[in-house]
Design goal:
It is built from twelve helices and seven strands. 50% of the residues lie in helices and 12% in strands. The chain has 300 residues and is α/β, with parallel strands linked by helices. The C terminus is likely disordered. The protein has a seven-stranded mixed sheet with strand order 2-1-3-4-5-6-7, with helices on both faces.
């Protein structure tokens, strides 16, 4: 099958290679790397109708700009697929806008990271049934066996991927807290060894645990050369917002997101407030900030 791929980053390049290995014909566009086309319009000309163009670019402005450019170039009967981590409400809007021009739009949540090339990408596809049937050979080649599904109408693909990533936050935080406790315990524990044996037979075994073990093998038990700073790409926030709208409690996911926020605070003002209050009502000693400016930290 023929497919146009827009975006050849870590995910897009792996997906392209996996599809080519499966015998599909890929035409590509990425202004930052070597591609078959130098513009989106040139990419469209390289594809036979009905065209199928997969966007694998960062969510936000880049996705919106790419979508609008493609919508101005493509013709009725063509299909735009968004495989990035877009907000599902944006995907629902784009579906409606594309439909006005008789262009199909599919939102596909993609999980697998840099390992997807070899083991396959899990796919959660949202959209109408007709383009789903046409795209089935692509999905089957990208995913491992039983690793993809048409999960629902427009928006469902990115909604389920959002929840998937929220769950991921909670799982990672649980591992992080457990290993933190063992790190500070009275025992001289070999954390890499523990992560290793837990991969076999343990009820907490998982792919994430395998990755943690691999990282400890690479960086050492205490991960000394990795900074304690954890970013978030937005899906955790969206998950919590939707949970609030639906009055569904998600305490583990919420705590995991807040823990990521805390990792970025070199000076925690809330801890200062608590220390000050304990000093005021109980006379508990407070620790003075030493050399804050010399260390490059502004205590304000």
């Amino acid at each position: 099958m023929q497919l146009g791929m827009v975006g050849l980053g870590r995910m897009g390049s792996g997906m392209t290679e996996r599809l080519e290995r499966a015998g599909h014909e890929l035409k590509t566009y990425d202004p930052k790397v070597e591609s078959t086309a130098k513009t989106l319009r040139a990419l469209a000309k390289q594809l036979d109708a009905p065209r199928h163009v997969w966007m694998m670019v960062p969510a936000g402005k880049i996705t919106e700009d790419t979508f609008r450019k493609l919508l101005a170039i493509l013709e009725p009967g063509d299909t735009i697929i968004d495989g990035g981590n877009s907000n599902f409400r944006d995907s629902q809007r784009r579906f409606k806008e594309a439909r006005k021009q008789k262009v199909s739009f599919a939102d596909v949540g993609v999980s697998g990271g840099i390992w997807g090339l070899e083991v396959g990408f899990c796919l959660m596809a949202g959209g109408e049934k007709t383009p789903m049937k046409r795209l089935a050979p692509i999905f089957e080649s990208l995913a491992p066996e039983n690793g993809w599904a048409h999960v629902g109408p427009s928006g469902a693909g990115h909604f389920t991927k959002m929840v998937h990533n929220g769950i991921e936050y909670g799982l990672m935080q649980a591992y992080a807290e457990g290993f933190e406790l063992m790190y500070h315990s009275e025992f001289d524990l070999d954390l890499s060894e523990l992560a290793g044996i837990w991969r076999y037979g343990s009820v907490v075994r998982s792919w994430l645990l395998e990755l943690l073990h691999a990282s400890m093998e690479q960086h050492g038990d205490h991960l000394d050369d990795i900074a304690p700073f954890v970013e978030d790409s937005g899906e955790g926030r969206w998950t919590i917002n939707e949970a609030i709208n639906a009055s569904v409690p998600v305490p583990a996911i919420s705590a995991a997101l807040f823990a990521r926020f805390a990792s970025r605070r070199e000076i925690d003002f809330s801890a200062k407030v608590q220390a000050a209050l304990r000093n005021q009502f109980g006379g508990h000693a407070v620790k003075a900030v030493k050399h804050a400016k010399a260390a490059g930290h502004d205590p304000r």
